[in-house]
Amino acid sequence: MRQACKPQAGESNTMHSNREDQPEEPDFTPTYEPEPQKRPYWKRAHLDWRVWVAAFFIFAAIAVYVWTVDLSVVPRV
Known about the structure:
Blueprint: H1 14-17, H2 41-44, H3 49-67
């Protein structure tokens, strides 16, 4: 039984011997309509929950800063 991996004596590896037998380079040009570009993130950021959580914490920090008169009021214990 002949092994498929090893060429016999006097034969060459036919898989790589003839350049003409090899297929041409693939054509990567798109054959479909490309998808429309998404809007930039800063235009659709208000739909993301993380933006609203960050905005809430920023507003809370500003509110605490203003209500405590520049953090000069210290809570009494």
